[in-house]
Write a structure and sequence with these properties.
14 helices; Rossmann fold; globular; 496 residues; two-stranded antiparallel ribbon
Length: 496
């Protein structure tokens, strides 16, 4: 299985309800098990939020009405918030492909979050969940979806997995979940939103285009650490685009680890601006010339890459001016015996060998995986009352993902959704230290969608001084919440 991204992740099982749990009201088929419903309350800022959580399985049916999979979800609805049919509703998922919804759920959006250190690094175990004062529940109801193969979600038959584990099948199945949820919980007239992270942004863009043709229009979409066009991130012979688009993040990373010259080290934004302008201009032109590049021009490119990345000139020359991401992560701090993270290049790892070509592991994953795994498994069984012996697949429940021929790209589906629904708004959040979905690659995709000039004002972008999961860092978590809250209110034509 090719897994480009994370995320900034079972057959139908017998559910046991918590002692005080109640069952959800919508009627279901006799063979289905009823969702588990629990009541909760937290204080977020100066607001007390009383809310209901519904955790259960949604049957995913084919055109003949046959159930082919069961999709696990956790829905948070604010109590005493007026008619449900008028309350904003947001569907949330992560990426992978093959990741559950846990990261956005207990990292940023939900009323509980994993307690990390202030910079986003891992605290000492045992880990804990705390009330999330930055929850989005005050602005919108939240439904966290685990696509087929992730979390507790499973195809009914093993050989059906391949139907869901591709770009088109994934979009269709999650689209069917959205339709079913709106139907069963009578939310068809709610203002609707999507939020996806990483490959989840690929899915969200595809869903916007798919569902508008089914009569479902969204008020707004939030893309966290976005990738819509995979040509921007595939390091392959003949595709020079990633080398250009990753460069500003290489510069940001070198700045963070103090590997840049003094004038660039003194001003982060100046360093980024220089990297961006040179990358899309002289650097892109030099790579396009290939073997026709003259010796003097080649040396000029080497000198500039050395200035903007902190890498040794001889190493850059041996790379043929093209610095692949895994090589960068290994090489930048080789002299210190450390590697840098792909998901968050602020974090450092320690390899067995100092002379290997690429890192042994991504230190970001070792930081996030234990706290999120342990706290969520405890939370879903206790606070949410959903008891099962099944493994909750945080990551890795998908055998093989088919991206299709060429480079997967859902940016056209998003453009089409805008053209058919000009009221839709888009918020795009990126981390400066994200080497999985670099911010400059996202900017490139957004400016190459062919979006009509009258609709460009519908797009808002924001950058954060953190990585792929910018919400790991508490400062960025607060900034993300504030900016998304403004976006949600603005998408509804209201004043905050």
């Amino acid at each position: 299985m090719r897994r480009l991204l994370l995320l900034p992740a079972l057959s139908l099982c017998l559910l046991a309800q918590a002692p005080e749990a109640k069952t959800a009201p919508p009627a279901t088929a006799a063979a289905e098990e009823k969702p588990v419903v629990t009541k909760h309350q937290i204080t977020a800022g100066n607001r007390t939020l009383a809310y209901t959580v519904t955790a259960g399985m949604m049957p995913i049916m084919n055109a003949a009405g046959e159930t082919e999979a069961d999709m696990f979800y956790m829905a948070y609805t604010l109590d005493n918030a007026g008619p449900a049919a008028k309350r904003p509703l947001m569907f949330s998922f992560n990426g992978g492909p093959g990741s559950s919804s846990v990261w956005l759920h207990v990292g940023a959006l939900g009323p509980k979050r994993v307690k990390m250190r202030e910079d986003g690094s891992m605290p000492a175990p045992p880990f804990e969940l705390v009330d999330n004062e930055y929850t989005w529940l005050g602005e919108t109801d939240l439904v966290f979806i685990d696509p087929v193969g992730t979390g507790y979600s499973r195809p009914r038959k093993a050989d059906l997995g391949k139907k869901f584990w591709n770009v088109k099948g994934d979009i269709q199945s999650v689209g069917e979940f959205v339709r079913m949820y709106l139907t069963r919980y009578e939310r068809w007239t709610s203002p609707l939103f999507l939020v996806g992270e990483s490959y989840g942004t690929t899915r969200a863009a595809g869903l916007a285009g798919h569902l508008i043709d089914q009569g479902i229009a969204f008020n707004g979409i939030v893309l966290v650490s976005s990738i819509l066009n995979f040509q921007t991130a595939r390091f392959a012979k003949g595709n020079d685009l990633p080398y250009v688009l990753f460069l500003p993040t290489y510069t940001a990373t070198a700045w963070y680890h103090k590997k840049l010259p003094a004038d660039l080290q003194a001003d982060f934004q100046k360093a980024l601006s220089e990297a961006e302008q040179w990358a899309e201009g002289p650097y892109a032109e030099a790579l396009a010339r290939g073997d026709r590049l003259g010796a003097a021009q080649r040396q000029g490119v080497i000198d500039k890459l050395n200035r903007l990345t902190g890498l040794d000139k001889r190493y850059i020359a041996q790379c043929n001016l093209r610095i692949e991401i895994q090589h960068f992560c290994k090489e930048l701090l080789r002299d210190r015996g450390r590697t840098v993270g792909r998901l968050d290049s602020r974090f450092q790892g320690i390899d067995e060998s100092g002379v290997s070509e690429t890192p042994d592991f991504d230190p970001t994953m070792s930081i996030i995986y234990p706290p999120y795994t342990t706290t969520f498994n405890q939370y879903v069984r206790t606070a949410l009352g959903y008891k099962t012996d099944r493994t909750y697949n945080i990551l890795g429940g998908v055998d093989r993902w088919e991206f299709g021929p060429g480079y997967a790209d859902t940016s056209e589906a998003l453009r089409s959704a805008f053209a058919k629904n000009p009221y839709m708004k888009l918020f795009v959040a990126s981390g400066y230290f994200d080497l999985a979905t670099p911010y400059f690659a996202t900017q490139y995709t957004m400016s190459h969608m062919g979006l009509d000039g009258s609709l460009r004002g519908n797009v808002t972008t924001a950058n954060y001084e953190a990585g792929h999961m910018m919400y790991l860092q508490e400062k960025s978590l607060g900034k993300l919440k504030s900016e998304v809250a403004d976006f949600l209110v603005g998408s509804l034509g209201r004043n905050r």
